[in-house]
Amino acid sequence: MPQILEASSAPPLLVVLSGPSGVGKDAALDALKLLDRPWRFVVTATTRPQRPGEQEGVDYIFLETAAFLKMKERDDLLESAQVYDYWYGVPRNQVRQGLQDGKDVILKVDVQGADTVRELAPDALFIFMIPSSLDELRSRLTKRMTEKPSEIDLRLSIAQSELGRVGEFDYRVVNREGQLEQTVAEIDAIITAEKCRTRPRVVDFL
After folding, report:
1. How high is the pLDDT of residue 153?
2. What is the DSSP track for 52-104?
3. Which of 61, 99, 117, 142 has a Cα at 20 to 30 A from 204?
4. Is residue 132, in this structure, part of any structural domain at all?
């Protein structure tokens, strides 16, 4: 018989939150942090410009391209990708330290990044956030006023392709406009349920 563990004694999870650009991953992460769970949130490194209201080391680690590429060369990044002319990467030491501390580690990546993590850690928990419609996604991208119309069209085209890969993930969560609280509750419930598995996920690639 498989060993049955209490949720509190289950091995730490590596939770991968993904989804198309503009679906609300950052907003979901901010709300998840307010739940005060024993989670470790990985701060992504990026070369893109800092947006108004974003905090260094909290929302992202903002780096010059040369500094980012040095991290990449030293294999300091669990995964990295160039997206819309900017580099994004997950610092390996943050993931390693969180798991060693026995905490569930939550990281945010795009679909390409999820592919890389899946190869390294097939037992990670993969959650895919989707919008209720492409029209809603266009509205969100337009409202944040950080892209030109041509760039929005490109992101929507890529999003449509990415949405076709939802079946590669363990769960999908619909982030409807104005219902972020429900989205966060669903993600929280997924993690809670996974901690109660009789055959727990074990991430040991680090």
Report:
1. 87
2. TT--BTTTBEE--HHHHHHHHHTT-EEEEEEETTEEEEEEHHHHHHHHHTT-E
3. 61
4. yes
Which range marks the domain in which residue 174 is found?
7-42+102-195
Binned at pLDDT 50, 70 and 90, residue 1 comes out as: very low
* Length of the chain in terms of residues written: 206
Total number of domains constituting the chain = 1
The answer to the question of residue 109 being in a domain is yes
Domain assignment present for 73: no
Average pLDDT over all residues of the chain: 91
- Any domain includes 89: no
How far is it, in rounded angstroms, from Cα 158 to Cα 111? 10
Convert the pLDDT of each residue in 66-117 to its tens digit.
Answer: 999 999 999 999 999 888 789 999 999 999 999 999 999 999 999 989 999 9
* Nearest in space to 181 (alpha carbons), one of 24, 17, 21: 24
